[in-house]
Amino acid sequence: MRGLAFSTPIFRQLVEFQSYTYTYILGCEKTRQAVIIDPVDKTADRDIQLLKDFDLNLVYGLNTHVHADHITGTHLLRKAFPSMKSVLSRASGGKADRLVDDGEDVQFGEQKLEVRATPGHTNGCVTYVWHELRRAFTGDSLLVRACGRTDFQEGNAAALIFIGHNYNGILQTSVLEEKNLNPRLTKTEEKFLETMENLHLAHPKQLDEAVPANMKDGEVENSS
């Protein structure tokens, strides 16, 4: 049975509550091709069901960077959509079906995303820009009224440009809002670097498991 019909490009914002990660499903209403941005292994079944409900064929699983707080769900999504290709920045040094560079396009049906390198949180952070709907998926480079930490995993506050997480319940923001209201981005460069060097945050709980797995497309080593 055919899923729901749409007259405009398909967009869904989803949340995984353990790591407060935002996952996004984007679809072409004409060809039914779709991409998913920053899927999480714990919510892969939910995402698969939603894609099937909408009669979408998942062609790309995109990660904005090598995550430290959760394991990507791309390897699980591929079981339901065997032709899906995982995507990761070449600068990350990780493994994926397709490694992308700044300026490349990711096509899904009649829709496409532009890849923009936005390092700082990690060397391999990218932002996916959907020009048709004027939306940018920044991963951890930019958060609502904050930005990704830079104190480990190749972080470099001096390289950080500008949401993959949010911890206060606000679902979305805009470039204009963050330029004017983000308490980190409104500082001088000197004060910004000082702030980022003195966050004193605990490392993510899944760091030791997540980073090695995400460098290999979410594959977890079998300890047996």
Q: Could you explain how this protein is built, in words?
A:
This protein is α/β, with parallel strands linked by helices. The protein has one domain: Metallo-beta-lactamase, Chain A. It is 18% helix and 23% strand. The protein contains 5 helices and 10 strands, in the order βββαβαββββββααα. It has helices spanning 44-53, 74-80, 175-181, 189-197, 207-214; strands at 10-16, 21-27, 33-37, 57-62, 85-89, 98-100, 105-108, 111-117, 126-130, 135-137. Helix 1 packs across helix 2 (74-80). The longest helix has 10 residues, at 44-53. It is globular. The N and C termini lie far apart (42 Å). Mean pLDDT is 78; it is low at 155-160 and 162-167. GO terms for molecular function: metal ion binding; sulfur dioxygenase activity.
